[in-house]
Amino acid sequence: MMSTIDLIILGILTESPMNAYEIIQYISERQIGNFLKISDPAIYKSCKRLLHDGLVDGTSVKEGNQPNKTVYRINPDGEFKFNQLMVHYSSNLNNWNIEFNAFMWNLEKVDKQQGLQMLANLGDLLREKESWFKDHVVELLPYIPFSARMVLTQYSMMTTTLVAWIEGATEEYERLDPSSANEFNVAEVNRIHGH
After folding, report:
1. DSSP secondary structure letter of residue 59
2. What is the reported pLDDT for 35?
3. Which residues share a beta bridge with 179?
4. In whole angstroms, how large is the CA radius of gyration of the chain?
5. Domains recognised in the chain with CATH numbers
6. Cβ contacts of residue 13 below 8 Å, gap of 6+?
7. Which of 6, 64, 86, 101 is the most buried (most CB within 10 A)?
């Protein structure tokens, strides 16, 4: 099974052995969760699975009155899997799932004024995110490693593109005559798409 969470955890463990809580702290401090879909429960689950699958070794450690914690250390099989995952994710491009596309897909099914308000809401959120990137990216770049700079730059560029997209979508929606909305022509779409 290919998992981005496994790739993130194995990558972190190439730096140093850690328990699951320390991995969560590492991800939180570096704000990785803002850019990659990962949750605390998924980290705990993945650590246990990686141990079960023999990709990491675990050592039970007791500190003071705290309950035992398992410290995970990547092993040679885990390093092999890490490299496999790196090759997989650099060689395969899956469809992007942008959650607000579900809203966009159904926009013509709501009252036009309500639709315009929804577009304005989304536009405000995208512009807010774009503003954050413009204010912080240049300031942060000297203090973060290459990989983080590239992800941050990618998100900044995507956000700028999404702002331009929402502005164009809003303008087109304002001009849209609901009585003449185009029907989705499945046969034509499949013909063009090659199905």
Report:
1. E
2. 78
3. none
4. 22
5. 4-91 (1.10.10.10), 100-193 (no CATH)
6. 23, 56, 72, 73, 74, 78
7. 6
How many CA atoms lie less than 13 Å away from 41 in the CB half-sphere? 0
Structure tokens at 124: 């405000």
The contacts found for 10-16 with CB under 8 angstroms, 24 or more apart, are: 10/50, 10/55, 10/56, 10/74, 10/78, 10/79, 10/81, 10/82, 10/85, 11/82, 13/56, 13/72, 13/73, 13/74, 13/78, 14/74, 14/79, 14/82
Q: Average pLDDT by consecutive 10-residue portion of the chain (195 residues)? A: 89 97 93 84 96 97 88 98 95 86 92 96 96 84 86 91 97 84 69 74
Amino acid of residue 30: R
Residues 74 and 81: their CA atoms lie apart, in Å, by 10
- Which residues make Cβ contacts (< 8 Å) with residue 129, sequence separation at least 6? 159
Complete edge-to-edge strand list for the sheet that includes strand 18-19: 18-19, 69-74, 56-61
Dihedral of the alpha carbons of 133, 139, 143, 148, in degrees to the nearest 10: 20
Task: Report d(CA 82, CA 88) in Å as an integer.
Answer: 10
Q: How far is CA 82 from the centre of its chain?
A: 19
Return the pLDDT at 45: 96
Number of alpha carbons in the 13 Å side-chain half-sphere of residue 1: 9
